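Crash report, auto-generated. Payload:
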Amino acid sequence: MRLRASWAVILAAALLVGLLAYGVASRQADTSIDDAIAAGERVDAPTARLPRLGRPGQGSLADYRGKVVVLNFWASWCKPCTEELPLLERTHRSISGRGALVLGANYQDVSTSALGFVRRFKLTYPSLRDRDGEFADRYGSRAFPETFMIDRRGRIAASRRGPVDQRWLDRTLPPLLGEPA
Amino acid sequence: MKALLLVIAVLAAGGPASLPDIEDEVMCVECGTALNVSNSAVADQERAFIRRQIALGKDKEEVKAALVEEFGPGVLAEPEERGFSLAAYVVPAGLGLVALAGLLVAARRWRRRPAAPEPEPEPLADADARRLDAELAAYDRR
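Recovered output after restart:
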């Protein structure tokens, strides 16, 4: 009987350790997108139907299939995010006539504060509200800001984990703009 | 008495909201720590949001509901009822059930155990028996 009790305690301890290990592993950021890009592959971009920031109704990345999308995750309290907004707006204006656009995904943010920055920088590109960051999690999001280049077939072609600059945009955007839908 | 009833009514309605009372029950959504121990930019933004909600006259539960509306259910400092966070509910309940089962088994075993027989008294040594007889005889003679 004592032997059986010992096995039960060992089993319970092993289950708890397994649960802890699973918990730690499940909290780590998903690197599958980065791994695929590093291997020169393109993976399907996750999509989700989300409320539009400052506009009624909902929108999704899937609505822009056939267009090149510069998907930018941002928040108004994140200084590097707000610093790159003018560059993203300029980029949007320059590509919007070529079957491409910038799409913002605002998350972990107060909507009124985010809208304040939209007005301040006169942003004309749309933003979605990913209020709890669940959509960002599916991109293996680790920090703010992060930007993904989505090709016309809805696949992730490039990613930038950190602020974008003109050089990165110049390197990644033109090849995608030249691809057929 | 009326004042006491008024106080009870206010408390039952959730009570007046205050930042210290709320910020230890919500999370800094970016840092993953309780808001009252966070000093990040997003924490400051959340605190400003809470102050604005309080200024609008909302009570504690209404402020928390507004926070959930803005940041999602993860802003509340309680585990989500899905995914790995479910373990926070399931594991304690499971451990409680195991402990209860253990107590029941132990109680049943304890009840089934036969009562130990009374130990037989050891026989007196000869000298003690003689002395006892003598003392009893002396007692009878009184």
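Post-recovery validation: DSSP finds six helices and eight strands in chain A.
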